[in-house]
Amino acid sequence: MDIEEKVKLIRENLDKEIKSVQSTNDLSNLKVKYLGKKGCVTELTHDMANLSIEEKKEIGRISNELKSRVDAIFSECEEALKNKELEKKIASEKIDITLPSTKISVGSANILEKLIEEMEELFVSMGYDVVEGPEVEKDLYNFELLNLPKGHPARDAQDTFYTYESTLLLRSQTSPVQIRTMLKNKDKTPLRVICPGKTYRRDDDDATHSHQFTQIEGLLVDKNVSLADLKGTFDVVAKKFFGEERKTRFRPSFYPFTEPSVELDISCFNCEGKGCSICKGTGWITVGGAGIVNHNVLDNCGYDSTVWSGFAFGFGAERLAMLKYGISDIRTFYTNDLRIKDNFDRKDND
Ligand SMILES: [Zn+2]
Fold first, then answer.
1. Coil, helix or strand at residue 116
2. Residue 55 pLDDT more than 70?
3. Mean pLDDT (the chain, rounded)
4. SS3 state of residue 70
5. What is the pLDDT of residue 257?
């Protein structure tokens, strides 16, 4: 076969084979087949030892022409492949902006936790410390040192969960944390603390009662503390949580650990004092209890009550949240229903 026929055959084969190239890998295999060391184009110039210079020149020219042509075909093919792959990539990355988006569910804090945090921030800004204590508590701290000795009738008001040991119980109030804090303060310096936490009572669960609920109690011990100081502090809380225009009032009450004791009322935020179902027609809503710390409690905890005085207050966190967010069922706080969470989030963002 002479050189012209070989070149013709190579070109015919290449024209056929280039059509079946689908990928850059196919192309590079084909390149080796034609232009590699043992490729059919390269081999054209082998075995030229017995040829004349003229013949060598001629074969060199023909083989160079073929090589250029083959190079051009490969470049063309490579370009086409690149374009094809780019088109494929663009198609796969195409975003249809008319499609509805996937709804992402974002987690958020429980509304009760948010309220407790807000309360903590408020009191910390007034120089209070946040303190915590155990939920399984000694009778001594939950009752006795709080001026509620064994057999005291006021113990009945707090239906308590006792453990198999009658000296241990699930705390029925967060007041034992105040007792612990006062006892721990060996130097008997002034104190300002709030104690938020879970408390437990043997209540039947219904819309407004739960066997577990959350108290936020506070205690201030210093010299010459009066009800006026308590009133000023309560005013700040009422305005922060229920609006700047809130009025506050004290109503006489009874707690064994405070004397005098008061109920903490705010002017109704719903009817502005005219009377509605939330305030039961009175224009006032009770949001907590408070008083001047009973001298027995101070003495029990090593604070000389002839020198020291203080006030204490307590709020039901659930009650505050129910009033603030218009929630009618206390059990709402303890369910895992995400629809309720979403609803709170919406209210919060309004
Ligand atoms: Zn009202």
1. helix
2. yes
3. 90
4. helix
5. 95
pLDDT beyond 60 at 349:
no
Superfamily of domain 111-349 in the CATH hierarchy = Bira Bifunctional Protein; Domain 2 (3.30.930.10)
d(CA 74, CA 85): 16
Lookup result for tokens 């109030």: 173
pLDDT at 197: 96
249 CA → ligand 1 middle, Å = 15
- Distance of CA 293 from the midpoint of ligand 1 (Å): 31
**From the CA of 270, how far away is ligand 1's center (Å)?**
5
DSSP classification of residue 21: -
Q: For the whole model, what pTM was predicted?
A: 0.68
How many CB atoms are closer than 10 A to CB 3? Answer: 15
What's residue 346's pLDDT?
A: 65
Per-domain residue ranges for the chain? Answer: 3-92, 111-349
CA of 86 relative to ligand 1 center, distance in Å: 69
Report how far ligand 1's centroid is from the alpha carbon of 266 (Å).
10
- Tell me, what's the pLDDT at 270? 87
Determine the distance separating the centroid of ligand 1 and the alpha carbon of 164, expressed in angstroms: 45
Cα of 326 vs centre of ligand 1, distance in Å, is 13
Residue 232 is predicted with a pLDDT of: 96
Q: Which sign does the torsion angle of CA 226, 228, 229, 235 carry?
A: positive
Tell me, in angstroms, the distance from the centre of ligand 1 to residue 170's CA.
35
Expressed in angstroms and rounded, the spacing between residue 285 Cα and the centre of ligand 1 is 8
Ligand 1: distance of its center to the CA of 26 in Å? 83
Tell me the CA–centroid distance for residue 102 and ligand 1, in Å. Answer: 43
Query: Which among 19, 2, 1, 7 is positioned nearest to 65, based on CA atoms?
Result: 7
User: Given a cut of 80, is residue 225 above it in pLDDT?
Assistant: yes
Cα–ligand 1 centroid distance for 251 (angstroms): 17
**How far apart are the C-alpha atoms of 10 and 322, rounded to whole Å?**
89
Please count the helices (runs of H) and the strands (runs of E) in the chain: 10, 9
How far does residue 267's CA lie from ligand 1's centre (Å)? 8
Q: How far apart are the first and last CA of the chain?
A: 90
* CB burial of residue 189 (10 Å; 0-12, 13-18, 19+): exposed
Query: How confident is the model over 77-89, as a mean pLDDT?
Result: 91
